[in-house]
Hints:
Elements: H1 14-25, H2 31-48, H3 56-67, H4 74-93, H5 97-106, H6 109-124, H7 131-143, H8 148-155, H9 163-167
Helix pairs in contact: 1-2, 1-4, 2-3, 2-4, 2-5, 2-6, 3-4, 6-7, 6-8
Amino acid sequence: MFFKRAPKPRASSGTDVLRELVRSELPDLDEDSARILISVAGLLASVAYADREYGAAEQAFVRSALSRLDGVTESGVDAICGVLQQHGQTIAVQNPQAFTRELRERVEVPLRLEVLEVLLELAAVDGELRLAETDLLRRTAAALGLSSADYQQLQERHRDRLSVLREQPKG
């Protein structure tokens, strides 16, 4: 005989918290804009925590990047930054493919390139692009439907910050 068990309540993930916050803090955003914002914020968290450090320079950059998005109020930026501070590591370890899929389905290539550029700038803001960051950014570019040439062109601006190049002996 099997006993009926009550389903275990599902714990809210960092992404769920982010989603609920965007909907409550920014109720005037239409569905597409809200999904795009959630995806961009999720990717920002993924890149910010890729090197396991979310320092002051990265936090300031994320705040600036979010404040440039249409329809996002100052209180919305504050709230999203709070969620990224509290739940960013959780969001970062979740599969970023959901975020890239949303963007690939909802926005055109020029905006996806702009998102990738912002992500690259975020990764480089601390003065160094580490291997974990470049690996994530390459996968993100591909998942956004962008070419490796697109990625290389954007990364070239930060070539001096690539830790892989710094570590190679000159010969």
